[in-house]
Amino acid sequence: MKKKMQDSTLKGWLYLLPAIVFLGFFMVYPLIDVLIYSFEEGYNFASQTYFGTGTYNYSYILHDPYFLQAVKNTLILVAVTVPLSTGIALLISVGLNSITALRSLLQTIYFLPYVTNTLAVGLVFMILFKKTAYSDGLVNLLINWFGGSSVDFIEGPYWAKMFVLCFYTIWIVMPFKILILTSALASINQDYYHAARVDGTSKFRIFRRITLPMIAPMIFYLIITGFIGAFKAYSDAVALFGTDLNAAEMNTIVGYVYDMLYGDSGGYPSYASAAAVILFVIVLTITCINLLISKKKIH
Amino acid sequence: MEVILQNLTKKFPGRGKKKQDEVTAVNDFNFNIPDGSLIGLLGPSGCGKSTTLHLISGLLTPTSGKIFFGEDDVTGLPPENRGIGLVFQNYALYPHLTVKQNILFPLENRKGKDRLSKQEMLSKAQEAARMVQIDGLMERRPGELSGGQQQRVAIARALVKMPKVLLLDEPLSNLDARLRLQTREEIRRIQQETGITTIFVTHDQEEAMSISDLIVVMKDGVVQQTGKPQEVYDDPLNLFVAKFLGNPQINVFQGNVKGEKLYIGKDAVLDIRDILGKDAGTEVPGITEKEVCVGVRPEGFVPDADGPFRCSLRGVEVMGRDISVVSENPAALSPAIRAVINSEHMSEIGSTEVRFSLLPNKVFLFDKDTEERIGFRGTQTEAVKK
Hints:
The complex is a heterodimer of chains A (299) and B (386).
Chain A: H1 2-37, E1 40-41, E2 52-53, H2 56-63, H3 65-98, H4 103-115, H5 118-129, H6 138-145, H7 158-186, H8 190-198, H9 203-231, H10 235-241, H11 245-248, H12 253-261, H13 269-297
Antiparallel strand pairs in A: 1-2
Helix pairs in contact in A: 1-13, 2-13, 3-7, 3-9, 3-12, 4-7, 5-10, 7-9, 9-13, 12-13
Chain B: E1 3-12, E2 23-33, E3 38-42, H1 49-57, E4 64-69, E5 72-73, E6 84-87, H2 99-108, H3 118-131, H4 147-159, E7 165-169, H5 177-194, E8 197-202, H6 205-211, E9 214-219, E10 222-227, H7 229-234, H8 239-244, E11 251-258, E12 261-264, E13 267-271, H9 272-276, E14 290-296, E15 301-303, E16 309-318, E17 322-328, E18 337-342, E19 353-358, E20 363-367, E21 373-374
Parallel strand pairs in B: 3-8, 3-9, 6-7, 7-8
Antiparallel strand pairs in B: 1-2, 1-4, 4-5, 9-10, 11-12, 11-14, 12-13, 14-20, 15-19, 16-17, 16-19, 17-18, 20-21
C-alpha cells in the first residue's frame, strides 16, 4: 500500500516535471536574476561584469524624473481605468442581461475590440484624436461643433494625452470584462429573482442585495486582474504616442524598464532590473490588499 | 382567502414560428379553492401543475382566463401585489445572507407606511422562525443547513409577510424519504395553525393524498379530477386517475362483460351489479357484451381457496403488517399483478396457483377505447370534464 502511494507520488512529480523545468528556467530563474542585477551597479551583459553591489540602482531610478513620471502615469492609469472600466462593464452587462432583442448583436459589437489588433485600434484612435495638417481629428470636430476650441490630444497638454490613454485602455479592456460579467449574470439561478419579485423587491434593491453579491467573486477577479494588467500597460501607450514615450511624458513603468534595456537611453540592465523589482513589489502589495479585502467581503 | 380559477389557460410559443408549435401547458382550468384549505396539485412531470402554480403567483400571466382572490380579480396584478408567499423547489434562499436576513428580506422590501420598525420586523421574523422551529439557527447561512432546515427557512420567509395564499412548488422533492414524511406533516401543521390557503404542487400521489384537503389530478395541462383524496381514490373518473393514485399501482386487466358477469380471461370474477351498484347493471348503456379494462386495487384481492379468479403465483414479498402477493395472469396488461393482503392470510396461498375473490368496491371498469370509467358515481366530488 505504502509502496503504491510512493509510486503514485513519483508519477505525479514526473507529470509535473516539464512544467516545473519550464517555469523554473523561464520564470523563477530570471526573477531571481533580476533581483540580483538590481543590486549590482553598472552590470554589463557583454562582459558580465559590474563595479560593485548596493542599493545605488534604486536610489538612481527613484531620483530619475523619467521614472517618477512613469510611476505617476501608471498610477493615474490604474486609478482611473480599473474602477471605470469595471463599473461601465457592469452597467453594460446588466443592460445586456435584461434585454432580449438585439442582445446577440450588441454582445458581438461589445466584444469586437477584444479581437481587434492593438495597432489597428491605435490607428483608429489616431483618426479620432490626432491633429494633422488637414484636420484636427474627429473628436476635435465635435468639440468645435459644440463651440469649444481644438485640443491636441496626441502632442498637446498632459491631461489631454492622459485622457486619450485612459479612454483607450478602458475601451480595450472592456470586452473581456463584459464577457465575464454577462456569463456570471447569466449563471445566477432565476429563482432568486422570482423569489425577490414575489416579495416585492425593488429593482435597485435586487441589484444591490442579490445580483451584486452573487457576482462579487467575478467582480473581484476582474479588479485584481485589472490592477495587474494596468500596472503592466505599455503597448497601448506606444500605439498612441510612438516609441519615444519619455519625450511625450507618457511613459509607464514597464515602458521605462524597456527603455532602460533597449530604448534610446538603453543598455542599463541594472537600472531596468531595479525598476522591474519596484513594479513587482507594487503589484504584489496591491494584489495582497485586494485578496485580503475580497476574503472579508465575499462569502 | 378563497382562490378561484376561471377558464385558466396558458400557452407557450413553440420553437418554430408556426402556430401549431404552441404548447398548451394549462388548458381551461376551472377550480374554486375554498378559504383556508390545503390543495395538492398532482400529476406526472410536464402536466402543467407548476405552470398553474406560477400563474397563481403571478410570475406567469395566463393566455386567457381569470384568477380571483376572494372578490378581487388579480389576473393582471404583478406578483408583489397579490399577497402571496412562494416556496421554490430549490428553496431559492439567498446564499450570502444569514437565515435571519433571509427571513427579514420580504419585510425590508416594504416602503412608506407599510414599513415596520426594526423591532417589529425582528419579532415577526422570530415568530415565523419559531413557527417552523428554526429559531435556533438564525445566524447561520443557508449553506450550513441541512435540506430540511433550508426548506423550513424558505417556508418561514414565505410566511413572514402573512400572505393570503401560500404556494409551494414541489416542497418535498429535494428531501430524503424520512424527512419528507416529517416535513409533510409539518406543512400540514403550519397550514392549520395559520389557516392560510395553501396550494402545493407534487408528483408524488402519496404526498398529496396524505395531507391535502382536496387534490387536483392533472394530465397534459388538463384537469382530470378534483376532490377529497379518499373520494378520488375510491371513485376515479378514468384509468389515468386510477393508475396515478395508489401505491402499489392499480392492476389493470383486459376483461369482458357477458350476461351480467364480468370475465377476466375465462374466470367470471364478479357480478356487474356488484361493481356498478344495484340500480345499474344492464341499464348502463352499452355495458352488456363489451370488452372493458378492469382495474383492481391491490387491496381488492382476497385470497380464497374457492375464489373465482385464478392466477399463477410468482412470489410473495413480506412487508411486515402486509404481504404483497406477486402473480401472473394472461389477461393482465402488466407483467405482474400485485395484491396486498393481510399477513394472516399467508397460509391460504398455494405454491403454484393462487385464487382470489375480488372486492367489488375495489374493482373499476373502464371503457377500452376512451379509458373513461364506466359507472363513475361522482357522488360528492365534482368531476371536471374536458
